[in-house]
Amino acid sequence: MNAETFLITNSLSLSSSLTSPKVPESICRRRFSFRLLWSEIHRYPSNYRRDLVTAEFRNVSGKRRSFGKVWADVKPKPFEVSADSVPTESVKFRDALNDIVLEEKWWEQFPKRWIIVILCFSAFLLCNMDRVNMSIAILPMSAEYGWNPTTVGLIQSSFFWGYLLTQIAGGIWADTLGGKAVLGFAVVWWSIATALTPVAAKLGLPFLLVTRAFMGIGEGVAMPAMNNMLSKWVPVSERSRSLALVYSGMYLGSVTGLAFSPYLIHTYGWPSVFYSFGSLGTVWFAVWLSKASNSPLEDPSLRPAEKKLILSSSLSKEPIKSIPWKLILSKAPVWALIVSHFCHNWGTFIILTWMPTYYHQVLKFNLSDSGMLCVVPWLTMAISANFGGWIADTLIMQTVGFLGPAFFLTQLSHVDSPAVAVLCMSCSQGTDAFSQSGLYSNHQDIAPRYSGILLGLSNTAGVLAGVLGTAATGYILQHGSWDNVFEVSVGLYLVGTVVWNLFSTGEKILD
């Protein structure tokens, strides 16, 4: 008997695809080697190959014998092998491999959809690392270049100029071209702009403003692209948890940036912050190219069971051909999102960009203390965002996200202790994070097919709040006080609460 016939005889004994009556017992008791099986499998197409093959059979007496990774004692069945009964080669090994137990390493069994979620989380971590480093570096930079508070506010707001330009465009690109290319482009673009910031500052204020605006262009498309990716990859039942995890990457990015920036500034000078943070984007981009796909349908490595799970329960839709702007803008819940996003982001971006300055000017912390204490509110946000994502997926989360920050900001004018002020700021940021389970998940609730465009639309209003609020804060501080800054934020939080509860919905309004 030649090797091929012998292999077929043994490996097909359990498949019962051959029904003739008998095989000599001496043949069934013989062992076939793993090397022989391996060499035979490699003669066939790659979809029949595996890194590790373990075959388990039993002999007539029911005892097992082992040879390396292969259990090869075969329990005989009464059949004979004839030339007419041997199937074609592809059928032989397809049936044979159905009875082979495959051993996979644990990382090969990790769900691919959660790899996408983790990569989006990492992108947002880098996003905020590169964004908040300026809020620390601006202190030594303003001392070196002699900038007044109004100029500092202008520099801080210049990021949002570019950020504003690409919100709607980013949503359109993501929903038409796919989230993989758009998010990959975004990370590379803003990483280059980050690394060029020290060079631009030395050339002059106009160059710095343009560079920061360019950085905003890159970060502006990140959120719509991420929203597009998750709408295709994550089932509805896991949506809030995945969104909470991804957005917590923003907060942990702030924690990381604020924690490491003071050390880098003291040790290597303020330009080192931009060089080091900007270089991390290239590492992320290399992993993104090799692991990400626009959708489960385009991923050849996705396991069939996971693909079935995602496609049967996700909000994934085919790329859109046209955008019904008139229909979208005619819906009251859409305008509730836009107004609420503006009100929410006014307070959030002020705290994001001005908190280290507040700690330094009001609480009299030095540069290192300002950076480290700024970590506490953002760490609280990271925890709260994930907590909110697990406990609820309802509109009440956004009410907490509005009224909580409003209440704690009003307390800042009544406290004298720096420790209590930090506590109030942390509680404000912690309750603000519940917005991830309200405002930021509502786009997929009401318009799953246009979620990227809708997020770009509402986030445009949110970024406009960043542009106006960050610049206005510098003006208010030059002519007023921090109490006036917080009063404006509290007023807008209350407006957002009213609009959200009157007009928003958790039901789908657009197909």
UniProtKB/TrEMBL annotation:
UniProt-listed Pfam families: MFS_1
Protein name: Major facilitator superfamily (MFS) profile domain-containing protein
Signal peptide: none
Compartments reported by the entry: Membrane; Plastid, Chloroplast
Record Gene3D superfamilies: MFS general substrate transporter like domains
Family annotation (PROSITE patterns): MFS
Domain Major facilitator superfamily (MFS) profile: 116-508
GO cellular component: chloroplast; plastid membrane
Record's keyword terms, sorted: Chloroplast, Membrane, Plastid, Transit peptide, Transmembrane, Transmembrane helix
Chain segments annotated as transmembrane: 114-134, 154-174, 181-201, 207-230, 242-264, 270-289, 334-355, 375-392, 453-478, 484-503
Organism expressing this protein natively: Chenopodium quinoa (Quinoa)
Record SUPFAM superfamilies: MFS general substrate transporter (SSF103473)
Recorded GO MF terms: phosphate transmembrane transporter activity
Keyword Membrane: yes
Keyword NAD among record annotations: no
InterPro entries according to UniProt: MFS, MFS_dom, MFS_Na/Anion_cotransporter, MFS_trans_sf, SLC17A9-like
